[in-house]
Amino acid sequence: MNSRFLLRKKHSLFPLPSSQYLHATTATILNTMASQSYAFFHPPKCSAAREDGPRNNNPNKGSSIKINGTSAAIAANIACPAFPSPASVTKSIPIKENRQNIPTEKQTVDAFRQGLIIEGGVRYRQTLVIRSYEVGPDKTATLEAILNLLQETALNHVWMSGLLGDGFGATHGMIRNNLIWVVTRMHVQVDEYPIWGEVVEIDTWVGRSGKNGMRRDWLIQNRLTGQTFARATSTWVMMNQQTRRLSKMPEEVRDEISPWFIERCAIKEEVPEKIIKLDDSAKYVDSNLKPKRSDLDMNHHVNNVKYVRWMLETIPDIFLENHELSSIILEYRRECGSSDVVQSVCEPDEDSIPRDDNINILTGYSLASEILDDCGLAGTFDKWPTRYTHLLQIEGKQRNEEIVRGRTTWRKKLSNTLT
Questions:
Q1: What is the pLDDT of residues 291-337, one digit of tens each?
Q2: Among 115, 126, 130, which residue's Cα sits nearest to residue 5?
Q3: Where in the cell is it found (predicted)?
Q4: In the CATH hierarchy, which fold is given to the domain comprising 1-42+103-272?
């Protein structure tokens, strides 16, 4: 049996935090309660009787109903606390702020998200469980699920920094300058996909990228063993929300985020790989793709994860059944709106076809192609390229406009590898 399954039987799926974590969590909760001048919950009724009339005809007999561990009979004798009504609360506090409860100061512990600020108070770590709707038919996390987790932990990192405004990860200084973040490049490497129910830790941190950019990295590991599942790096720049043009980083924004920079890279890229541009003559073409409303993010353009889905759908299903993605590089050119019509093109790299893909099941030795043909086995050991180049573009009357270029690398699934 897989040792990763055995570990989950031996250890609790939700391991208790250390005493230090508990003390920090308790202190955070108490400080939050003490700092609020209003209640976040509805006050309990001061009577055990039902609103439509008493259920117990004997007024001297106490009710067996429990309220927070105290009998209703005892609770009825306690004076009702002077909680403000929900209406009085919402009059003075904006509904969105009341529901999101975005911190205005740096937090070190987030008990609800199981998040921590570590490494000198600048690196973020979140513990989570791979859920059933995040896995595919083989019970391993999908690439889309991993990309969504990267995006979520990045936003939670900004949330805990105390810099988050009302934008999609934008700081207070960015909001004052009408700026938003846009990703220009992302590189994800997957060593192994986590399985359903596995407890993982995701670390994320930021660093400098040139004069006006920011780099964000991630590391996904098994919480119990420390095994690395995936690592990722990305480059971000700022765009004016109204003009949709790239912008220089204002000094007030630089002052906000630079104290969080770490000079560490999850993936070392001395010379980033350049991706060639494809055209309509590519081997695989999928046209007339239209974004749905559910594909849009909070900035009102198509979410980055949707781009990856469109890219991978051009690859033949027979290849996807026996292979899994090990690396993806994305170069973003422009955003895609709800009214755009998209075309996805894909070209396999013929030079990436494995040379020794034809293996004798019994001996393990390579079989000559002519022997396979004579035995009628040609086609049984299909050779597939392991690298593909991708392009998403907006279909236009005059010319097509690039959305994102991609490069994917694949490997055979372990369960389907001939040994």
A1: 999 999 887 889 989 999 999 999 999 999 999 999 999 999 999 99
A2: 130
A3: Plastid, Chloroplast
A4: Thiol Ester Dehydrase; Chain A (3.10.129)
